[in-house]
Amino acid sequence: MANPYRELFTAPGSRGFVLAGMIARMPISMTGIGLITMLAQLKGGYGLAGAVAATFALATAFCAPQVSRLVDRFGQGRVLPVSALLGGGALLMLLLCTRLQAPHWTLFLFAALAGCMPSMSAMVRARWTEVYRGQPQLRTAYALESVLDEVCFIVGPPLSVGLCVVAFPEAGPLASVLLLAIGVTAFVLQRGTEPPVHPHQAHHQGSIIGSVDVLLLLSLMVAMGVIVGVVDVVSVAFAQQQGQPAAASIVLSVYAIGSCLAGLAFGALRSKLPLPRLFLYGGVATAVTTLPLLLASNILGLSLAVFVAGLFFAPTLIVAMALVERIVPPARLTEGLTWLVTGLSIGVAIGAAGSGWLVDTFGARSGFWLAIAAGAVVLGAAVQSYRQQR
C-alpha cells in the first residue's frame, strides 16, 4: 500500500518549504513561554512576566490576520520579510530593554510590535493548497500540517525554557528570533512554490470575518482552543492535587500523542463523505469526549480521558481547514487559514485563564466544566455549519 505522506513530497519543492516552514513557525510556540521565563528570572516575579506575554499573545491574535491579508494582496515574498523583520526586531528590542532595565512600558510596547510575526503555519498550508487544490492529497497535507503544529508546541516550550535556564535568561526568546530569521529567509527564497496573487474582486474588500460560514468555523476553533487550554492547566493542578506533580507532563504528552496519531491516520484515509458531514461528526465527537474528563479520579483515568479527547482534535481541525479552503475565495485563502489558527490560540488563552480561576476557586476538577461548556459550543457550531453548507 502506497504511503500517502510520501506521495505528498513528490511535488517539486515541497520538502524545502515544509522544512523552512517548520523552522519559521517554532517562534510562535517558544516566544511567550520564553518571555515568562526570562522576566521571571530577571524581575523576580510572574505578574509582569505574564502581562508582557499576554500582550504578545493578544497582539499576535490581532496582527496575524492583517499580515495574511497583505500576503493575499501582495504575495508571500514581499510581505513575509517585512513582517518577520518588524516582529523579530521588536523582540530583540524587548530583550535589550530587559537587559538595560528600561521602564516597564517599553516591554509592553515591543511585545505588542513583536506580535507582527507572520502565521507561518497558514503560509505553508497556502502553498500546499496551491499544489493540490481540488485533489484528495490536500486533506493529507492539512493532516501533516496539523501534526507538525502539535510537534511544534510539544518541542518549542521546553526548548525555550531550557535555554533560558541553562544558558542565560534571554536565550529562549533570542533563539526564537534566530529561528524566525532563518526559517522565513529560507521560505521566501523558494519562489517556485509561492502561491500566485489572485485578483481581488470588488465584493472581496474588507475582512472575511464577516462571513457567517467563517464565523462558525472561527467559533468552533476558539472553543476547541478553550478545551486545550483547560487540559493544559487542569492537568497540572490535578497532578499536584494527587501528589504527583511530575505526572502532568505524562498527561499532556498522552493528549498530544492521541491527537497526532489520529491526525496521521485521518490524513491517510480517502473518505468519500462530504466535508460538512465529516465536520459535523468531528464536532459531535469532540463535544462528547469532554464528558469523561469529569469522571477522572486518578492520573491513569485522566490520561485515558485526555487520550480519547485528543483522538478527535486533529481530525476536526483538518476538516475545518479543508472547509475554509472551500468557503473563501482563492484571493483570501491565507487570511481565512490564519483566522482559524488565531482562533485556536485565542481559545487556548481563554481556556487557561478561565480554568485557572475555577481551579483556584473551586478545586482542580472544577476546571473541566469549562471544557464541557466549550464542547457544547463546538457541537452547536458544527451543527449550524452543517445546516449552512449541506
TrEMBL record:
Question: What Pfam families is this protein classified in?
Answer: MFS_1
So where does this one cross the membrane? 16-40, 46-67, 79-101, 107-126, 174-193, 214-240, 246-266, 278-296, 302-324, 336-355, 367-386
The Major facilitator superfamily (MFS) profile domain, residue ranges: 213-390
Spell out the SUPFAM superfamilies in the cross-references. Answer: MFS general substrate transporter (SSF103473)
Recorded hits in InterPro entries, A to Z, give: MFS (IPR011701), MFS_dom (IPR020846), MFS_trans_sf (IPR036259)
Q: Which keywords does the record carry?
A: Membrane, Transmembrane, Transmembrane helix
What is the name attached to this protein's record? MFS transporter
The organism of origin for this protein: Pseudomonas agronomica
* Taxon lineage: Bacteria, Pseudomonadati, Pseudomonadota, Gammaproteobacteria, Pseudomonadales
